[in-house]
Design goal:
The chain is α/β, with parallel strands linked by helices. 38% of the residues lie in helices and 16% in strands. It contains eleven helices and eleven strands. α3 runs parallel beside α4. The chain is globular, with a radius of gyration of 20 Å.
Length: 300
């Protein structure tokens, strides 16, 4: 009789929010590494190399199909929900019962374990899974190049509006977040801790405006708002509790809460994090600069 080598079980990761800023990039990193990925989104949108599956935090009937065969999960909380734990914790209980062994949660550098919103999920995660990580990235560089309100303001009138004053932030590239997420999901040993992710330097929103002006050739300016003005602007497009929380994060930035950098990206990926100029050139060069009036110029 010929002996056969033992087979290694195929790892399958359910990526929730697979069409989003970090989810799409995490999916791409996992696929490139040869991992099987179930790409979860409300529309079960096909992504290269992944198996599309429908996922909606507010529809538990889709949970079974999404979790089938998955032994790890990348968790992007429901956007704009001031109490994500209400829908996430029942799902995580079910995920554990279905055989998920490792969970990696996307949180924010501004939200600590046990804090508001996703901070409650952070607190619960270690009690639910033996293998886990909480990614706490600083503000995304893509907030100024993608579909965020800051990018919309830059395209509309060349203005970034915040209540952050001159406070500095270690803005981080979403691709660096995804690279860390992929390692946290697939390394033989899970981090089993929370990880604060930043770029290589802390920048003010004035710095960001100046760099965007240089890269795009169009003037961009940072308009400083009060906490109250920022809260009210946000409350016009989202629940008031969430708007108040976000405006409060800006105020914390003004007070210096995000003026830091970490070596987490380097430690987990083996390469330094990307700087803002590199990301801006990568994402804004070769297409129209953020449109604004012709001149007469910062979430987790």
């Amino acid at each position: 009789m010929t002996a056969t080598a033992p087979t290694t079980p195929t790892r399958t990761t359910l990526v929730i929010g697979a069409t989003g800023t970090t989810g799409s990039r995490t999916t791409a990193h996992l696929v490139a590494a040869g991992q099987r990925v179930k790409a979860g989104s409300r529309g079960a949108t096909p992504l290269p190399g992944a198996d599309p599956v429908r996922f909606d935090w507010y529809d538990p009937t889709c949970f079974g199909d999404a979790l089938a065969g998955a032994d790890r999960v990348y968790l992007v909380p429901p956007v704009g929900d001031p109490d994500p734990a209400a829908v996430m914790l029942p799902f995580l209980e079910r995920a554990r019962a279905c055989g998920v062994r490792r969970a990696v949660l996307l949180s924010s550098s501004a939200i600590t374990e046990g804090g508001p919103a996703v901070g409650q999920v952070h607190r619960a995660l270690p009690g639910l899974f033996d293998e886990w990580a909480v990614l706490r990235p600083s503000w995304f560089m893509q907030n100024f190049t993608g579909t965020h309100a800051h990018a919309d303001g830059i395209r509309a009138d060349g203005v970034i509006r915040t209540a952050a004053g001159s406070g500095r932030v270690g803005f981080v590239d979403a691709d660096d977040i995804a690279a860390v997420a992929a390692r946290a999901l697939t390394d033989d040993r899970a981090p089993d801790t929370d990880l604060v992710l930043t770029g290589p330097q802390a920048l003010s929103h004035d710095d960001i405006a100046a760099l965007l002006t240089e890269v795009t050739g169009r003037p961009v300016a940072h308009h400083r708002l009060t906490f109250e003005d920022m809260r009210d602007r946000l409350a016009a497009v989202m629940p008031s509790a969430f708007a108040t929380m976000l405006a409060g994060m800006d105020r914390s930035i003004a007070e210096g809460a995000e003026d830091r950098t970490t070596d987490t990206v380097q430690s987990l990926t083996g390469r330094p994090p990307h700087d803002f100029r590199t990301v801006a050139v990568r994402e804004l060069s070769g297409r129209a600069a953020p449109a604004g009036p012709t001149p007469t110029r910062s979430t987790p």
